Amino acid sequence: MHAERRPFSNIERKVHASASRRAKKQLMQIPWNRFRQAYEAYPEWQALSLWSRAVLGSGHRALPEVLKTLRKRCPQFLKTGAATAEPELLGFRLLEWVHSTVFRYAKRDGWFDALTFYGVRHVRSEAFWAHWEQCENDWSKTPPRSVPTFEQWKGLALQATILGAVSYSEASRAVEKYIQWEAAAEWIQPLIASDAQFPKHVVFELETKFRTDCYELVTKARSPRSPDWGFLIRAAKQRCLRVGRTMDCQDKLLRWARSHASHVRLTAYGKLWVNDRLQKRAHRYPSLHQWKRSAERFYVTSIGMKGRV
Q1: φ, ψ for residue 166 (rounded to 5)?
Q2: Mean of pLDDT over the chain
Q3: What's the rounded Cα separation, in Å, for the pair 65 and 81?
Q4: What is the model's pLDDT at position 226?
């Protein structure tokens, strides 16, 4: 059990809001595919740092196991001499090294704040932090007979349940599905906003997507011949969250989805897309795949927007 979190103060909320604005601005200044590579790698480095801290603080002589793992995953870090003194601080030094070395290109190109802001809010990062807290609590009372390897430790973290309802692995998959439906919602928004007839290829693609993921929603629609696609997509998004089973867990899944870097970019691009599309109605409506590619390529520079359709 984690200690109950105290309410945030006004100052803390203002600091968070400022950090959030800065991170979003940086996130929109880089194509998604470039950011995603670092974003998906960040939780793994968080896990390695936290595992090192947990096992070295367990009271066991675990340093050889830690050094063996680090030698395999980041031999350059060990060459810095970080493990020669105060090994209990090795995990902290590892994360500092990761920030300054592994992700130095993010610092150089001006989007490191976005990487860390969204990286620590990644479902897997939160899983590793929660498991580290659990290990700290449990092992301080009863030291383990043997410490887990890094891969074992990661596996236990992702298998742990959130509020007793769903594992972090399942939560991560649910969040990804939610974001995919969010992309579909943003894609058709100009058609809904203008009350336009849906092009045949858009209807076909929506029907195919529903047939693959949740066809029962279409069959239950009030008007099967002309379904309310906006309503159905909202229902599909809610269906993704129901894997959490309890309202508290579903709220947590929704928070993860909305703080996911991909979701932030999609919704920001979606606002621009609606305005752009309403001004270019004569152009052929893109497929969902084409729309996603445009959203991923899109970024903002000091002189304007790039990667537009």
Answers
A1: -155, 145
A2: 89
A3: 17
A4: 66
How confident is the model over 174-196, as a mean pLDDT?
A: 95
The structure's pTM equals 0.89
Confidence band, pLDDT 50/70/90 cuts, at residue 2: very low
| End residue of a domain, out of 159, 188, 223 | 159
| Whether 286 contacts 203, CB under 8 Å | no
Pick from 134, 123, 130: which is nearest to 252 by CA?
123
Measured CA to CA, the distance from residue 4 to residue 250 in angstroms comes to 19
pLDDT of residue 1: 39
Q: How far apart are CA 161 and CA 134, in angstroms?
A: 12
Domain boundary pick from 159, 179, 205: 159
Q: Is the pLDDT of residue 145 over 80?
A: yes
Task: Tell me which long-range contacts 298-306 makes (C-beta under 8 A, separation of at least 24).
Answer: 298/31, 298/32, 298/265, 298/269, 298/272, 299/28, 299/29, 299/30, 299/31, 300/28, 300/29, 301/29, 305/272
CA distance 85 to 70: 16
Question: Backbone phi, then psi, for 48, in 5-degree steps?
Answer: -65, -40
DSSP bridge pairs for 162: 166
Token digits of residue 292? 């996603």
The label of the residue with tokens 């006004």 reads 10
Nearest to 249 by CA among 185, 160, 183, 181: 160
Nearest of 47, 130, 134, 154 to residue 91 by alpha carbon: 47
Verify that 86 and 58 share a domain, yes or no.
yes
Q: How many structural domains does the chain have?
A: 2
Q: Provide the 3-class DSSP secondary structure of residue 50.
A: helix
Phi and psi angles of residue 174, each rounded to the nearest 5 degrees, phi first: -65, -40
Domain that holds residue 132: 10-159
